[in-house]
Amino acid sequence: MKLIYRTIFVALVALMCNEGLAQVPEKPVNASPVVDLAGIINNDSLVSALNAQLDSLSKQTQNQIVVVTVNDMGGMDPKVFATEIGKKWGVGGKKLNNGLVMAIKPKNDNGDGMIGFATGYGMEGAFPDVFCKRLQADYMVPHFKEGDYAGGIKAAIDEIVPVALNEYSYKQPDSLSDNGKKKGNGSGWLILATILVGIALIMVMRRRGKAAQAATQPQSSQLANNDESKTEEPEGTEKTDEPEKTDEPENDDEPEKDDTNSQDEPKPYKYEYGGGEFGGGGASSKF
Hints:
Elements: H1 2-22, E1 34-36, H2 44-61, E2 64-69, H3 78-89, E3 99-105, E4 114-120, H4 129-145, H5 149-164, H6 187-230, E5 278-286
Parallel strand pairs: 1-2, 2-3
Antiparallel strand pairs: 3-4, 4-5
Helix pairs in contact: 2-5, 4-5
């Protein structure tokens, strides 16, 4: 009897999991970084700009950031839902596993609004859970509560891309302020002052070098005149003019090599998912 109960329990759990996984959308035929299945962005020009921004990131670093909006997550945790999309679509490369999925569900008849981030194994260092959680809380949720899904998505991507490009790290103190703006720590002025002092020292040393060279120049010319007087030839000796050597013109008749066809034409770039693996990194939020 216990064996029967256990079998039924396992079957129910598997059925629930399959129902949840059935809610994970299929990868679109025409792949793009932003997949607005819920139709909440309502700004075609912004979608095009975000696609171009994330496509350029993929070209430069091979890191892939994918944004997916859906109307229902099938009762799944948002982070788990984003993880399943990453696995099913293969976001990121197989070797680097450098993918990041942002899954967004608006607040609608199916329940509260939800945000899920999932990171590939190769992106967990750049985007740890605490960083993902703060992006959601400081950049996305305030916009989403006002119904501005386009603004929240753009704000998050504008913070994610510099990190993916390694322009700055989440570990820097005060790199993200309380109001969601980057602020400096004053070190820029110190660097600028150091550069200016170095330039001034170089200019002073060059001037001193020119002055010393000018002071020694007459002595050098006098020595040269003395050497010429010592090496004058005695009178009565005739100088024989040697025929001037004329350089023969080089043969310019040889045709130049045409290297225009030596390089292969670059192949057109296509945004393709590479089959990256996903771990347990990421974060979830509700609004």
